[in-house]
Amino acid sequence: MLAVAVSQLELALRESQGPLQRLTDSIVRIDQIARDAGTPQLGRELAVCLEQLQFYDRMTQHLSHLRDFMSNMTVAIESGTRDGHSEADWERMRNRFRERLISDAQRGLLDLIAPAADARAPGCAPQPRHAEPGSIELF
Predict the structure, then answer these.
(1) Domain map of the chain by residue range?
(2) How far apart are CA 23 and CA 28, in angstroms?
(3) Which of 4, 26, 44, 46 has the most CB atoms at less than 10 Å from its CB?
């Protein structure tokens, strides 16, 4: 099932690249037209469009990391059923994935769903589930 999920993520990422490139090219052309015509309002709107494309890029980076992790997990599970894996092996894979996540919110969700081995040990203090009141995360 992990291999199926990986292939679906790969397909979604691949299918989005063509339309995204055409959109980016169009925005660049419109920006040049706006500069040539001296239309600052249109230029500001295009800047907003480009900023929103950065959010799309961030999402595709996250999905790519998930795809790669799931692919690695598929290989690890398949080889683990043959060779066996220690908890330390699984913890190393979890930590590699955690390092590749791109925000504190993503790392916090991983820690909540799949806590590190030392956090599961008896007597260990639980990780906070939410940020402090009034705090925000910037990226």
Answers:
(1) 2-115
(2) 9
(3) 46
Q: How confident is the model at residue 123 (pLDDT cuts 50, 70, 90)?
A: very low
Work out the angle at residue 84's Cα, subtended by the Cα atoms of residues 81 and 86, and round it to the nearest 5 degrees: 135
Distance from C-alpha of 64 to C-alpha of 9, rounded to nearest angstrom: 8
Between CA 9 and CA 62 the distance in angstroms is: 11
Q: Residue type at 11?
A: L
Please name the residues in contact with 31: beta carbons below 8 A apart, sequence gap of 6 or more: 43, 46
DSSP 8-class letter at 129:
S
The confidence score (pLDDT) of residue 139 equals: 47
If one counts every other C-beta atom within 10 angstroms of the C-beta of residue 69, the result is 19
Rg from Cα positions in the chain: 21
Phi, psi of 113 (to 5 degrees): -80, -40
Condensed to tens digits (0 to 9), the pLDDT of residues 60-103 reads 888 888 888 888 877 777 776 556 667 777 788 888 888 877 77
Whole-model pTM? Answer: 0.56
